[in-house]
Amino acid sequence: MINKITTEWKGGMAFESDNPSGNSFLIDDKVEGVDKREGLAPKALMLSALAGCTGLDVVSVLDKMKVTDYKFKMEVSGELTEEHPKYYHKVKLDYHFYGEDLKEKKFKKAVDLSVEKYCGVMEMFRQFAQLETEIHYHNK
Is the pLDDT of residue 29 over 90? Predict the structure, then answer.
């Protein structure tokens, strides 16, 4: 399968990029002396792509296991190399599950399946970064 996107320069440091789904978003980066940003920074988007990919997997697996009463968020942090070209060489992904009487084994299984088997973005990150994952349970 081939995915194709089109990214168009909109002036300054802003680009509009589409998606095979037909949606689009703005990409930009910090400019000296300008505080306002219209879009998302490219490297931060990589972390968002990682969270989105594994998050979709986790929710899908939990749905198949009939787990429905929970809230879920992820925090991803990436450490960039010092030298150019700067890239993430260390990435930490924290999964947070919230709810009453959380079935920890099911959540762990869903995360493990994503991390070890399903998440293609995770596999791409493994090619250049040391990955660490941790699951946090917040029982009410």
Answer: no
**Phi, psi for 32 (deg, rounded to 5):** -50, 125
16 C-beta neighbours (distance < 10 Å), count = 16
* pTM of the predicted structure, to 2 decimals: 0.92
Q: Which of 130, 122, 118, 37 is nearest to 74 (CA)?
A: 122
CATH of domain 42-139: 3.30.300.20
Residue 62's H or E segment, with its range, is helix 42-64
Whether 81 contacts 45, CB under 8 Å: no
Per-residue pLDDT tens digits for 116-127: 999 999 999 999
In contact, 89 and 81? CB cutoff 8 Å: yes
